[in-house]
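Re: [ENG-882] Designed sequences occasionally contain unexpected residues at chain ends

Forwarding the minimal case from QA. C-alpha coordinates:
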Protein backbone atom coordinates (compact mmCIF):
# COMPACT_ATOMS: atom_id res chain seq x y z
CA UNK A 1 0.00 0.00 0.00
CA UNK A 2 2.79 2.43 0.84
CA UNK A 3 4.50 1.62 -2.46
CA UNK A 4 1.35 2.60 -4.38
CA UNK A 5 0.94 5.92 -2.53
CA UNK A 6 4.46 7.18 -3.27
CA UNK A 7 4.09 7.25 -7.11
CA UNK A 8 0.63 8.78 -6.73
CA UNK A 9 1.99 11.60 -4.58
CA UNK A 10 4.76 12.25 -7.06
CA UNK A 11 2.28 12.38 -9.94
CA UNK A 12 0.04 14.78 -7.98
CA UNK A 13 2.96 17.12 -7.23
CA UNK A 14 3.96 17.17 -10.89
CA UNK A 15 0.40 18.06 -11.92
CA UNK A 16 0.28 20.87 -9.39
CA UNK A 17 3.59 22.32 -10.63
CA UNK A 18 2.44 22.11 -14.27
CA UNK A 19 -0.82 23.94 -13.45
CA UNK A 20 0.98 26.68 -11.58
CA UNK A 21 2.99 27.65 -14.69
CA UNK A 22 6.59 28.91 -14.84
CA UNK A 23 8.16 30.53 -11.78
CA UNK A 24 8.51 34.35 -11.88
CA UNK A 25 12.01 35.83 -11.90
CA UNK A 26 12.88 37.64 -8.68
CA UNK A 27 14.79 40.92 -9.27
CA UNK A 28 18.27 40.86 -7.85
CA UNK A 29 18.62 42.87 -4.65
CA UNK A 30 21.07 45.79 -4.48
CA UNK A 31 24.57 44.64 -3.73
CA UNK A 32 27.66 46.39 -2.39
CA UNK A 33 28.56 47.58 -5.91
CA UNK A 34 25.33 49.66 -6.25
CA UNK A 35 25.58 53.35 -5.49
CA UNK A 36 23.29 56.30 -6.23
CA UNK A 37 24.09 59.75 -4.73
CA UNK A 38 24.12 63.48 -5.57
CA UNK A 39 27.36 65.28 -4.71
CA UNK A 40 26.24 68.76 -5.80
CA UNK A 41 24.05 70.52 -4.86
CA UNK A 42 24.17 69.60 -1.21
CA UNK A 43 21.30 69.84 1.24
CA UNK A 44 19.81 73.35 1.80
CA UNK A 45 21.98 74.92 -0.93
CA UNK A 46 20.74 78.07 -2.67
CA UNK A 47 20.58 77.71 -6.45
CA UNK A 48 20.17 80.15 -9.32
CA UNK A 49 20.55 80.05 -13.09
CA UNK A 50 21.63 76.81 -14.78
CA UNK A 51 22.93 74.35 -12.16
CA UNK A 52 25.25 71.46 -13.11
CA UNK A 53 24.30 68.41 -11.02
CA UNK A 54 27.13 66.01 -10.19
CA UNK A 55 27.10 62.66 -8.45
CA UNK A 56 27.41 58.87 -8.87
CA UNK A 57 25.16 56.20 -10.40
CA UNK A 58 26.78 52.73 -10.35
CA UNK A 59 24.95 49.39 -10.52
CA UNK A 60 25.73 46.13 -12.38
CA UNK A 61 22.01 45.78 -13.23
CA UNK A 62 21.43 49.46 -14.16
CA UNK A 63 18.70 50.10 -16.67
CA UNK A 64 18.62 53.97 -16.49
CA UNK A 65 18.59 56.91 -14.11
CA UNK A 66 16.45 60.06 -13.98
CA UNK A 67 16.72 63.53 -12.41
CA UNK A 68 13.43 65.06 -11.20
CA UNK A 69 12.23 67.89 -8.96
CA UNK A 70 9.06 68.78 -7.04
CA UNK A 71 7.99 71.55 -4.63
CA UNK A 72 9.06 71.10 -1.02
CA UNK A 73 7.22 69.59 0.82
CA UNK A 74 6.29 66.95 -1.74
CA UNK A 75 2.63 66.01 -2.16
CA UNK A 76 1.16 62.90 -3.71
CA UNK A 77 -1.12 65.04 -5.86
CA UNK A 78 1.81 66.99 -7.36
CA UNK A 79 3.79 64.96 -9.92
CA UNK A 80 7.55 65.01 -10.21
CA UNK A 81 8.92 67.06 -13.13
CA UNK A 82 11.87 65.60 -15.05
CA UNK A 83 14.99 67.74 -15.32
CA UNK A 84 16.03 65.81 -18.43
CA UNK A 85 15.37 62.51 -20.17
CA UNK A 86 16.42 59.09 -18.86
CA UNK A 87 20.16 58.28 -19.08
CA UNK A 88 21.45 54.71 -19.41
CA UNK A 89 25.15 55.45 -18.88
CA UNK A 90 26.76 54.86 -15.48
CA UNK A 91 28.54 57.82 -13.84
CA UNK A 92 31.07 57.89 -11.02
CA UNK A 93 31.76 61.31 -9.52
CA UNK A 94 30.80 63.12 -12.74
CA UNK A 95 28.06 65.21 -14.31
CA UNK A 96 24.57 63.74 -14.02
CA UNK A 97 22.73 66.58 -15.77
CA UNK A 98 21.89 70.31 -15.81
CA UNK A 99 18.86 72.04 -14.25
CA UNK A 100 17.72 75.44 -15.51
CA UNK A 101 16.23 76.95 -12.36
CA UNK A 102 15.05 80.08 -14.18
CA UNK A 103 12.08 78.08 -15.50
CA UNK A 104 10.59 77.62 -12.00
CA UNK A 105 9.40 80.16 -9.42
CA UNK A 106 11.64 80.98 -6.49
CA UNK A 107 11.11 78.73 -3.51
CA UNK A 108 12.11 75.43 -1.90
CA UNK A 109 12.33 72.24 -3.97
CA UNK A 110 13.27 68.58 -3.62
CA UNK A 111 15.76 67.30 -6.20
CA UNK A 112 15.54 63.51 -6.72
CA UNK A 113 17.95 61.05 -8.36
CA UNK A 114 16.11 57.82 -9.24
CA UNK A 115 18.21 54.80 -10.32
CA UNK A 116 16.10 52.20 -12.20
CA UNK A 117 17.45 48.64 -12.01
CA UNK A 118 16.60 45.61 -14.11
CA UNK A 119 13.47 43.94 -12.72
CA UNK A 120 11.61 47.15 -11.81
CA UNK A 121 13.44 48.01 -8.57
CA UNK A 122 14.34 51.70 -8.10
CA UNK A 123 16.68 53.42 -5.68
CA UNK A 124 16.03 57.14 -4.86
CA UNK A 125 18.36 59.82 -3.53
CA UNK A 126 16.85 63.25 -2.66
CA UNK A 127 18.28 66.68 -1.79
CA UNK A 128 16.34 69.67 -0.41
CA UNK A 129 17.39 72.97 -2.04
CA UNK A 130 16.16 76.56 -2.40
CA UNK A 131 15.89 78.42 -5.74
CA UNK A 132 16.41 82.22 -5.72
CA UNK A 133 16.77 83.96 -9.09
CA UNK A 134 15.10 87.33 -8.40
CA UNK A 135 17.56 89.99 -7.22
CA UNK A 136 16.21 91.60 -4.05
CA UNK A 137 16.20 95.39 -3.97
CA UNK A 138 18.36 96.55 -1.06
CA UNK A 139 16.65 98.91 1.35
CA UNK A 140 18.68 101.45 3.30
CA UNK A 141 17.31 102.83 6.54
CA UNK A 142 18.59 106.27 7.48
CA UNK A 143 20.62 106.28 10.66
CA UNK A 144 19.60 109.07 13.01
CA UNK A 145 22.29 110.13 15.41
CA UNK A 146 21.19 111.83 18.62
CA UNK A 147 23.82 114.22 20.00
CA UNK A 148 24.78 113.49 23.56
CA UNK A 149 24.86 116.56 25.79
CA UNK A 150 27.92 116.85 28.02
CA UNK A 151 26.92 118.18 31.49
CA UNK A 152 28.51 121.30 32.95
CA UNK A 153 30.06 122.33 29.66
CA UNK A 154 29.90 126.12 29.12
CA UNK A 155 28.69 127.19 25.73
CA UNK A 156 31.05 129.76 24.21
CA UNK A 157 29.33 133.01 23.25
CA UNK A 158 30.12 135.33 20.39
CA UNK A 159 33.47 137.06 20.72
CA UNK A 160 33.42 140.91 20.58
CA UNK A 161 34.64 142.38 17.33
CA UNK A 162 37.32 145.11 17.88
CA UNK A 163 36.66 148.48 16.27
CA UNK A 164 39.48 149.75 14.02
CA UNK A 165 39.54 153.49 13.28
CA UNK A 166 40.56 154.32 9.72
CA UNK A 167 42.33 157.66 8.89
CA UNK A 168 40.26 160.17 6.95
CA UNK A 169 40.44 159.64 3.22
CA UNK A 170 41.04 162.66 0.99
CA UNK A 171 38.27 163.12 -1.51
CA UNK A 172 39.77 163.56 -5.02
CA UNK A 173 38.69 166.64 -6.95
CA UNK A 174 36.89 166.06 -10.18
CA UNK A 175 39.07 166.72 -13.22
CA UNK A 176 38.02 169.33 -15.72
CA UNK A 177 36.09 167.81 -18.53
CA UNK A 178 37.92 168.17 -21.83
CA UNK A 179 35.95 168.75 -25.02
CA UNK A 180 35.84 165.75 -27.28
CA UNK A 181 38.56 165.70 -29.92
CA UNK A 182 37.16 165.91 -33.41
CA UNK A 183 38.30 163.05 -35.58
CA UNK A 184 39.01 164.15 -39.16
CA UNK A 185 36.74 162.41 -41.54
CA UNK A 186 38.50 160.41 -44.21
CA UNK A 187 37.37 161.01 -47.77
CA UNK A 188 35.16 158.34 -49.11
CA UNK A 189 36.62 156.62 -52.14
CA UNK A 190 33.46 157.03 -54.21
CA UNK A 191 32.78 160.72 -53.38
CA UNK A 192 35.84 162.47 -54.94
CA UNK A 193 35.18 163.91 -58.48
CA UNK A 194 38.88 163.66 -59.52
CA UNK A 195 39.11 159.93 -59.81
CA UNK A 196 41.02 158.42 -62.76
CA UNK A 197 38.29 155.91 -63.45
CA UNK A 198 35.62 158.59 -63.61
CA UNK A 199 37.78 160.88 -65.78
CA UNK A 200 38.55 158.05 -68.22
CA UNK A 201 34.89 157.10 -68.38
CA UNK A 202 33.83 160.69 -69.02
CA UNK A 203 36.46 161.05 -71.80
CA UNK A 204 35.29 157.87 -73.51
CA UNK A 205 31.69 158.97 -73.25
CA UNK A 206 32.53 162.43 -74.76
CA UNK A 207 34.54 160.89 -77.59
CA UNK A 208 31.75 158.48 -78.47
CA UNK A 209 29.19 161.27 -78.41
CA UNK A 210 31.38 163.50 -80.63
CA UNK A 211 31.98 160.66 -83.10
CA UNK A 212 28.28 159.94 -83.20
CA UNK A 213 27.44 163.63 -83.87
CA UNK A 214 30.04 164.02 -86.65
CA UNK A 215 29.01 160.71 -88.12
CA UNK A 216 25.41 161.79 -88.27
CA UNK A 217 26.37 165.15 -89.83
CA UNK A 218 28.55 163.45 -92.45
CA UNK A 219 25.81 160.96 -93.25
CA UNK A 220 23.36 163.81 -93.60
CA UNK A 221 25.69 165.72 -95.93
CA UNK A 222 26.31 162.58 -97.99
CA UNK A 223 22.62 161.93 -98.41
CA UNK A 224 21.96 165.52 -99.33
CA UNK A 225 24.79 165.59 -101.92
CA UNK A 226 23.57 162.33 -103.39
CA UNK A 227 20.09 163.75 -103.73
CA UNK A 228 21.44 166.85 -105.58
CA UNK A 229 23.89 164.93 -107.83
CA UNK A 230 26.90 166.77 -106.36
CA UNK A 231 28.58 163.69 -104.90
CA UNK A 232 31.02 163.20 -107.82
CA UNK A 233 32.09 166.83 -107.94
CA UNK A 234 32.70 166.94 -104.21
CA UNK A 235 34.71 163.73 -104.33
CA UNK A 236 37.03 165.09 -107.05
CA UNK A 237 37.31 168.37 -105.21
CA UNK A 238 38.18 166.52 -101.97
CA UNK A 239 40.78 164.50 -103.81
CA UNK A 240 42.33 167.53 -105.47
CA UNK A 241 42.34 169.76 -102.44
CA UNK A 242 42.97 167.31 -99.58
CA UNK A 243 44.16 163.86 -100.61
CA UNK A 244 46.60 164.80 -103.38
CA UNK A 245 48.41 167.45 -101.28
CA UNK A 246 48.87 164.85 -98.53
CA UNK A 247 50.59 162.42 -100.89
CA UNK A 248 52.65 165.16 -102.61
CA UNK A 249 54.07 166.59 -99.38
CA UNK A 250 56.54 163.71 -98.73
CA UNK A 251 57.78 163.85 -102.29
CA UNK A 252 58.53 167.52 -102.05
CA UNK A 253 60.50 166.99 -98.86
CA UNK A 254 62.71 164.37 -100.54
CA UNK A 255 63.56 166.74 -103.38
Amino acid sequence: MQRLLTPAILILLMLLMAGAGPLQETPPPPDAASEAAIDYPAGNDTLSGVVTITGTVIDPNLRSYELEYAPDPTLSSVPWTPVQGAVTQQVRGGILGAWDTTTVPDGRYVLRLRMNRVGGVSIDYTVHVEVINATPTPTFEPVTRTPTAVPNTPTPGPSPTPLIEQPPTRTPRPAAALPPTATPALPVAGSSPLQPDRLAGAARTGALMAAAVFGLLGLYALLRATARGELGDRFWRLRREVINPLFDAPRRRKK
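QA comment: On inspection the terminal residues look reasonable. Confidence is low (pLDDT under 50) at residues 19-27. Proposing we downgrade this to a documentation issue.
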